[in-house]
Design brief:
Largest interface: A-B, 43 and 43 residues
Oligomer: homodimer
Order of helices and strands of chain A: HHEHHEEH
Strand content of chain A: 5-15%
Structural class of chain A: alpha+beta
Shape of chain A: extended
Number of domains of chain A: 2
Number of strands of chain A: 3
Chain lengths: 116, 116
DNA sequence: CCCAAATATTGGCAACCAATTATATTGCTG
DNA sequence: CAGCAATATAATTGGTTGCCAATATTTGGG
């Protein structure tokens, strides 16, 4: 495969990995309402301070959020709205998968009924 | 946090993880052209047969692809077009991030020039 | 029925990731 | 500048993931 193409896949995968964590998704969801201090994020998502800070660091390094210091507080904000596009697409996918599963179950049941 | 919301984030994260691998992305990219046999996928993406098979299994389990047997061959096909929406969004994000970085570098350089 | 080709599965190992605990940094206030 | 509150950064550890090698399964052909 073209090595440049391979690099692109590496980058996409890296970005997806930065996103693929429930707590990080929760944080992004929170920040959708507007910038927040770490303390407040912490209060909402729960977990240890160190952990939340680390997740914020990962999101920041990936460029999904930015932060700005105001005195003793640090405010985080969404820097890349495309994450929400991604989440919507994923959710669509989940809904489709659920529907397919429902259909499969219905078929299986029909099969059982027939065989009675 | 609402436990139901938490479950949603778990599901999204799980799905993202299934997607967050260069080889799996390469496979999906290949399959965009149409259904393919495992052997042909193998020839294009490289790597061991076992590895490709495992990645295909992960994609299948996540519902991103389906497979159908035809004699001795198994054809895989994209089952969920939303993955491409996701990839496009991610790519947009990468482009934005790159541009921001370029700007930051330009600013830093300007600062250095000024200080001469 | 046995062989060969296509595909899947398993076991082991190294790399990576996430959570925790402890420690460091930063900025305000008295 | 001492001390506190907010945040970030190690260091450790248990669990997960990816890769490889070997083995098993499935299917068509002789």
């Amino acid at each position: 495969m073209d090595p440049r193409t391979e690099l692109v896949f590496d980058k996409i995968a890296e970005r997806l990995r930065s996103l693929a964590d429930p707590m990080r998704l929760a944080i992004l969801h929170l920040l959708q309402r507007g910038p927040m201090r770490v303390t407040d994020i912490l209060a909402e998502v729960g977990g240890s301070q160190a952990n939340v800070s680390k997740h914020l660091g990962i999101l920041r390094q990936a460029g999904f959020v930015t932060c700005r210091r105001e005195g003793v507080n640090v405010y985080y904000a969404v820097a890349d709205e495309t994450v929400f596009t991604i989440c919507r697409a994923i959710c669509e996918g989940i809904e489709k998968a659920a529907e397919q599963e429902r259909e499969a179950i219905a078929q299986a049941r029909a099969l059982l009924e027939t065989g009675r």
